[in-house]
Amino acid sequence: MNSYSQDALQQLEAGKLDEFNQTFKLALSNDSDDLLFSLAEELYSLGFLDQAQQIYQQLLKKYPDEDELRANLAEIAISEDQNDLALSYLSEIKPDSPSYVQSLMIAADLYQTQGLFEVSKQKLLAAKKLAPDENVITFALAELCFSMREFDQAIPLYLNLIKQGITELSAVNLVERIGVAYANAGRFGHAIGYLKQIKLIDMTPDVKFETAFTYLQLKEYKQAIAVFEDLRDSDHDYPTLYPYLGEALEKLHKEKDALRVFQEGLGVDEYNETLWIKAGDVALKLGENQQAEEYYRKGHHVAPDDLNLVIKLSNLLVQDEQYDDNIAFLNEYIKDHAVDPQLAWNLATSYAEEEDLEHAQTYYQLAAKSFDDQPDFLKEAALFYRSIGQIDTMLPLLKKYLTIEPTDADMDDIYREYH
């Protein structure tokens, strides 16, 4: 003859909720405490938290010293976002209780959900000290350190489990986890040893990315490209892959392929300033200066405060002798930004070429503070001051230049002419 608890579970399985509710009440009144405890565990696993809570509360009144009931009630309270109630139950479980380690684990989970990761970590460390051989605690601590990006602390914890032959816990592949942890810790040689044990078909997109990135750091460009392309084929909208896939292709001198990859990436994420920069850089390598300028300008539109982009575009405009455009572009930029030394130099060059001598002098003086040891700048500035007859300003610049480039006969002749 079935107990009321057994009947209730069967009715639940059959979807007879009205009958279940009636039978559940009979179980509460008539079944043994052991049967009720088992029923509560089943109901909790099925997501019927209210009913499980009723049973645990009823049993706790009868067995006030059973801290396992408090721990279970705390878990239910957390599931229902009743955090204060959960902490109340946990605070009643004392360090000498057999359920104290369990209570520390539950508290760690609660604090982690609240974003209090350091408090959570302290709870897990306390639990591990009390139960050093409990794998569930080791795993929980490893996962917390991993989520906190404390990879050097997570790695030995994962290793501890793997050395025991445990390669999966709570549906988490530990070989995959430790590989990603090693990669994020910059220990790429160790990382790839684990990551390449996993078949591509079994990898998540994030793990594929980490694997490809690891190959890239190890300069194994063909392998990196293969994994990045597999990621692209399986998840075309994964934007982070495109800059690195293009970079790997560039390393193999496949600039045209790299440019196509950057263009494809921009189709996925047009606000990715890194892609605009890389597209401009590779277009420049290919001698497509106009196309490079277009990429830099679009990137600047996306990220107007990105100084790297501003410098690249300004350098290109100076290189292509678009001095008016450079002056207009940089004057717009420096309305809201400090003048970077390289931009000051570019402005000095542009104003000098446009024969605006007053502005040219201003920016040569400004740039000189940062480039007084750069031979290209010293030579250009010296020749500028010579052209406007400021020999006293020219001579110290020329002297510095000749200290760095003593074999430049033409500049040495100029120096001797005035010295």
From TrEMBL:
Any Pfam family matching the protein: ARM_TT21
The UniProt record lists the keyword Magnesium: no
Q: Which UniProt keywords apply?
A: TPR repeat
Ranges occupied by TPR repeats: 273-306
Q: Does the keyword Ribonucleoprotein apply?
A: no
Name the Gene3D superfamilies for this protein: Tetratricopeptide repeat domain (1.25.40.10)
Cross-referenced PANTHER family: GENERAL TRANSCRIPTION FACTOR 3C POLYPEPTIDE 3, TRANSCRIPTION INITIATION FACTOR IIIC TFIIIC , POLYPEPTIDE 3-RELATED
Which protein, by its recorded name, is this? Tetratricopeptide repeat protein
Q: Which organism is it from?
A: Nicoliella lavandulae
Lineage, uppermost ranks: Bacteria, Bacillati, Bacillota, Bacilli, Lactobacillales
